[in-house]
Amino acid sequence: EDITANLRTVRSLPLRLNDPVTLNVRGEVFINRGDFDALNRERQHLGESLFANPRNAAAGSLRQLDPRLTAQRPLDIFVFGLGTNLAPGVQTQGEALAYLQRVGLRTNPHFRVCQKFRDVLEFVRNWQEKGNRGSLPYEIDGVVVKVNEFAIQSELASTARSPRWAIAYKFPAEQVVTKVLGIGVQVGRTGVLTPLAELEPVLVAGSTVSRATLHNEDIVKERDIRIGDYVILQKAGDVIPEIVRPLPERRDGSERSFEMPTHCPACGTAVVRVPGEAATRCVNGRCPAQRAEKLIHFASKGALDIEGLGPAAVAQLVEAGLVSSPVDFYKLKKEDLLKLERFGEKSADNLLASIERSKEQPFARVLFGLGIRMVGAEVAREVAAWTKSFDQLIKLRKEDLLEIPAVGEKIAASILDFFAYP
User: Fold this and answer.
1) How far apart are CA 263 and CA 286, in angstroms?
2) From CA 129, how far away is CA 96, in angstroms rounded?
3) Helix axes 54-62, 33-45, angle to 10 degrees
4) Cα-atom radius of gyration of the chain, to the nearest Å?
C-alpha cells in the first residue's frame, strides 16, 4: 500500500533533508491526545462518526484516498530507525538516532543508551511506575529494548515475525470500573453467537468504551458476570476492551444472570452447541447476520482488501438489495452506488477501482476471504499452495485434503461441507 502522498502532508516530516543523502527510514505516525480530542469534537459537531482511539485515527488518516483529507488531520511522526540503507559511519542504534536528528528528521527524545541490564530495568520502571507515562502528550503502551550495536543485531538476525535483537515490554493495562447495563448476542460469520456486554460509557486508555466482548457462555459463567454488575474493565494490549472480573461486593440483589438464547437472534433458527466446544452456533447457512459478516470478512484487509467496503458500506449495500454474496461486489455499477447516501462520484469511482484491483489478489487470499470455518489465513495459504485454483479444490476428496500438512479431519470436513452447501 503506497501512502507516500499522504505522508507528505505530515507537517513534522521534512520534504527536504539537511544533508544530500538517500535514506530508508522507519517511523511511527501518531496523534497527540489533545489533538485527538479536538478532532473528535469537530467530527461530533459535523455529525460524523467518532474515532475509537488515536491509533485508529492515525491509521485511517494515512489510508485516505485523498491526500487533502489526510492534510486536515493532526498527524505527527517519530522516526525510530534506519532501514536497509545504513548511513556511513553509523554503527549503533544510538548513533542512528543522533544521525536522524542531524539530517532533520524528528525522533523521540525520551530514549537512553544503557550500559547495564539494571539500567534498562530502571528506565522501564521510571516510565511504568513513576507517573511519567501520563505526562506525555501521546499514548504509549510500553518500552522497546534493542541491542545497540548493528553488528550484533546482524548476528542475532530475525525470526519470520520479529527481530531477535529487540523486545517490547508492555505496561500493565489501565483498569477502570464501569457497570454492565445489558448483555446482547452478536452472530459472527461462522454462526458463532458471542455475548457482548453493553457498558456504562467509560474512558479507558485514551478512548471511551461502551461495549466489550464476553467471548462465550462459559466465560460469562466462570467469571460470574451478571447484568447490572459493576466490573473491572481494561484494554488487552491497550486496544481490545475486556472485562477482567465483576465486583460482587457492590451487588444489591437486582443483578440478573445471563442465559444464552436457544434461537438465533437474527434468523430464529435453533442454536446448537457441539460437545467439547465452547461456541454456541446458528447452523442456518442462510442466516442474514452470518451473510453480512461474511461479506465484511471477504472485503477485509487480510482477504480481498477492498478499500471502502467497511461494515457500514456493506450494510448499506445489503439493505439496498445490491449485494447478498461476494460475487455481487463484482456486479456493482456506478449508477447503483450513486443512488446511495454515502456515495458520491469520487467515492463510487474509488470503490469500483478497488474492487477491480481485488481481482488480482492471489488464490490464498480469495480462499481465506470465503470465511470457511477453521480455514484461517495460514491454512488457506497451505491449501492454495497445493491446489492452485477452485477447480482443483472442489474436485478433492477427503483423503486428498488430508495429505495437506495443515489440514486435519475437522478442517477437511469443514472444506467439504462448505463446497457442498456454500
Assistant:
1) 15
2) 29
3) 70
4) 25
- Long-range CB pairs of 248-252 (<8 Å, 24+ gap) are 248/224, 251/226
3-state secondary structure of 285: coil
Residue ranges of the chain with pLDDT lower than 70?
47, 84-86, 130-131, 206, 237-238, 422
> What count of residues does the chain have?
422
Neighbours of 68 (CB within 10 A): 10
Closest by CA to 368, choosing from 326, 313, 308, 401, is 326
State the residue for C-alpha cell 543508551: 113
pTM above 0.90, yes or no: no
The answer to whether the beta carbons of residues 162 and 155 sit under 8 Å apart is no
Residue pair 302/377 in contact by the 8 Å Cβ criterion: yes
Cα gap 378→162, rounded to integer Å:
17
> In terms of Cα–Cα distance, which of 305, 385, 405, 404 is closest to 353?
305
Strands (E), 190-265: 192-204, 207-213, 230-236, 240-246
* Torsion of Cα atoms, 140 then 144 then 150 then 152, to 10°: -170
Residue identified by cell 505526562 is 135
Strands 240-246 and 230-236: antiparallel
In sequence order, which residues have a C-beta less than 8 Å from that of residue 290 and are 6 or more positions away? Answer: 187, 188, 189, 190, 191, 266, 282, 284
Helix (H, G, I), strand (E, B) or coil at 270: strand
Question: Which pLDDT score is estimated for 408?
Answer: 94
Judged by DSSP in three states, 209 sits in strand
**Is residue 293 within 8 Å of residue 311, measured between CB atoms?**
no
Cα dihedral across residues 334, 338, 339, 343: positive or negative: positive
- pLDDT score of 344: 86
pLDDT at residue 178, as a whole number: 97
> Where do the domains of the chain lie, and which CATH numbers do they carry?
4-170 (3.30.470.30), 175-261 (2.40.50.140), 288-361 (1.10.150.20), 364-420 (1.10.150.20)
In this structure, how many other beta carbons lie within 10 angstroms of the beta carbon of residue 173?
Answer: 18
Cα 229 from chain centre: 29
For residue 2, the surrounding DSSP H or E stretch is none
A 10 A CB-CB count for 200 gives 14
**Residue 79: its H or E element:** strand 76-82
